[in-house]
Amino acid sequence: MLNYVWFFLAALFEIAGCYGFWMWLRQGKSAWWIVPAVLSLTLFALLLTKVEAVYAGRAYAAYGGIYIVTSIAWLAAVERVRPLASDWVGVGLCVIGATIILLGSRVSSS
């Protein structure tokens, strides 16, 4: 269960870091947006190493599902755009997929 916390926090910092570059390059904001963006992306990388997984590729695959959940939450909370019903269906499928990847590796390695 702790893996999901690490995934969520990592996704939050990855999205925030990328959003800083988005604001600078796509929205014409100050280049100073890069400073917190780089710090945020560094935290993202560090947090992702906290995940309990034997292989990085499997951790990154499961992380992808949680990243999608966090991205839709970001869309709603930060960008103030209401997610579509299809967004929530996709989110559900991604969480199921991430869980299968995480739990499947434990069952197979026993």
From TrEMBL:
Task: Report the transmembrane regions from the record.
Answer: 5-25, 31-48, 60-78, 84-104
Entry's SUPFAM superfamilies?
A: Multidrug resistance efflux transporter EmrE
Regarding the membrane, this protein is recorded as:
Multi-pass membrane protein
Its main subcellular localisation, reduced to a broad class, is membrane
Q: Which InterPro entries does the entry link to? A: EmrE-like, UPF0060
Signal peptide location: none
Report the locations given in the UniProt record.
Cell membrane
**Keywords from the named record:** Cell membrane, Membrane, Transmembrane, Transmembrane helix
> Which HAMAP family does the entry mention?
UPF0060
The record ties this protein, via PANTHER family, to: UPF0060 MEMBRANE PROTEIN YNFA
State the similarity comment. Answer: Belongs to the UPF0060 family.
From the Swiss-Prot or TrEMBL record, give the protein name.
YnfA family protein
Q: Which organism is it from?
A: Pseudomonas weihenstephanensis
